[in-house]
Amino acid sequence: MGWSYARQVKAEIARETIESLPACMWAELWGLGGFSQPDQWRDGLKIGSALIARRAYRLMKTLNLSPRIMVYRASRRMHFVIKPNLNVDSVDEQSLILGCGPSYLRGMFLARGYLADPERGIHLEFGLDSEAQRALLLHVLLPLHLRPKETVRRGRTVLYWKDRQQIIRLLAQMGAHQAVLEWESAQVMKTVKNRVNRLVNSETANLRRSVESGMEQARILQKKVSDPSLPPALRELALLRIAHPDWSLKELGLALSPPISKSAVNHRMRRLLKGQNFETDGQN
C-alpha cells in the first residue's frame, strides 16, 4: 500500500535540513511532543512513526542532549520513546516557541497534523489533546496571520483550514516547498479546467442553438423550395440549408457558387424566411 498524501508531505518536512539556531530546534521538539509545560519532558517524546522519530533523535543529537531511544510494539504498530538527558526545570518553552513559530508548527504538524490531497479536497488540520495545546498553537498562529477554524471531533479539539491560500502559506512556513508547488499547480490546473469547461459549455450551447435554428429553417424552406418564383440564388441557399441544417451561416456561404460572406447569407436567409412573393424580387 502506498503512502497517503499527508505522510508524503510529512516525509518531505522530516527530511528538511535542521535549523541552525538551537532555539528553533527546541521549538520543533516542543511541537513534536505537543508539550505546554516543562515537566512533560520527564517521560520523553512518544512518537508512532519511525520517520518522525528519526527527526526528533537528530534534533536532540544536534543539541547534544544524549538522547536514549526505546522501541515497543502496541496495536500492531511500532512506537518510539525518545528521552533527552536534560534538566526539565530549566527549559523556558514560551520564549523558544514564540521566537521560532514556524519550527514549532513543523513539529506540531509532523506529530498531529493531517493534509488532504489538493486534487481531492482543501483541508489541513491539527488534532489537539488539551486546551493548553490549543492555546499555545493559536498563540503561534495568530502573529503569522494564519487563522484556523475550530471544531471538536471524538473529544479532541481540531483546528483546521479550508482556504487554499492559507494552507499554502502554512506549508511554506513549515518548509514543505514541494507541497507548496503541488498546491499552487493544483490551483492553476483547477482554474484552467474551470475556464475550459465554461468555454466548452458555451460552445456547446451555441452549437445547440445553431442546430435547432438550422433545423427550423430547413422545415420552413421545405415548403418554399418548390415555389417557381424563387430566384435561383435563393433556391440554391434553401436547398443547401435543407441538406445541411447543422451548418453555420459561414459554412453555407462557402459552399455556394460563387461563395458569399456570412452577412450576405444572413440577408438572403431573412428574405427566404419572410414568406414574401418572389415574382418581382431580385436575384440577390
From TrEMBL:
Occurrences of domain WhiA LAGLIDADG-like (ranges): 103-193
Domain Sporulation regulator WhiA C-terminal stretches: 196-274
Keywords: Cell cycle, Cell division, DNA-binding
Pfam family, one: LAGLIDADG_WhiA
Family label: Belongs to the WhiA family.
Keyword Cell division: yes
Highest taxon above the source species: Bacteria
Protein task: Involved in cell division and chromosome segregation.
HAMAP family assigned: HTH_type_WhiA
Alphabetized InterPro entries for the sequence: Homing_endonucl, Sporulation_regulator_WhiA, Sporulation_regulator_WhiA_C, WhiA_LAGLIDADG_dom
Record-level Gene Ontology MF annotations: DNA binding
Lineage: Bacteria, Bacillati, Bacillota, Clostridia, Eubacteriales
Protein name: Probable cell division protein WhiA
